[in-house]
Amino acid sequence: xxxxxxxxxxxxxxxxxxxxxxxxxxxxxxxxxxxxxxxxxxxxxxxxxxxxxxxxxxxxxxxxxxxxxxxxxxxxxxxxxxxxxxxxxxxxxxxxxxxxxxxxxxxxxxxxxxxxxxxxxxxxxxxxxxxxxxxxxxxxxxxxxxxxxxxxxxxxxxxxxxxxxxxxxxxxxxxxxxxxxxxxxxxxxxxxxxxxxxxxx
Length: 201
Prior knowledge:
By secondary structure, the protein is α/β, with parallel strands linked by helices. The protein has a single domain, classed as CNF1/YfiH-like putative cysteine hydrolases (4-Layer Sandwich), CATH 3.60.140. It contains five helices and twelve strands. The protein has a six-stranded mixed sheet with strand order 1-2-12-7-3-5, covered by helices on one side. Strands 4-6-9-8-10-11 form a six-stranded mixed sheet. Strand 10, helix 5 and strand 11 form a beta-alpha-beta unit.
């Protein structure tokens, strides 16, 4: 199993990973193994992902159960992993240095239009007293023009800036442009696997 990691998150000492293409594709029952191999806590929460703006606060009671009707997960607890699945949609890792709170967002075309990233940041402020100026947000691999006519990656970055996030980082990686490493739902006409993005504070 191979992973992408990002130096900006590593610089803050944040445990994270993004699974790369594999044979056979990883599926949800593989999450415990993914977390173990990536060196993240085995307790985790995973969202149902309905392409909406639902945000869940995850606690130790999650125990790997799917949280219904949410596309974003937030927590301030230690020894707890957040998990999402993507195959063109944008994974966004968020960390507030002031409070130690983290968020992991699944933001595709519909979720971006609905404002799931902003909803996540506002929920982190409400729940934990997090401050956008103290936040780092990183957009991982997702589909981008010219492979997709909608530049939702650009809109995600604009939304983060509008929320006054202190540091916004774009991986600039396009899933549809490198099918040796990535899955692309659009480029592969729906017949594809999923990446798992994982995060722990």
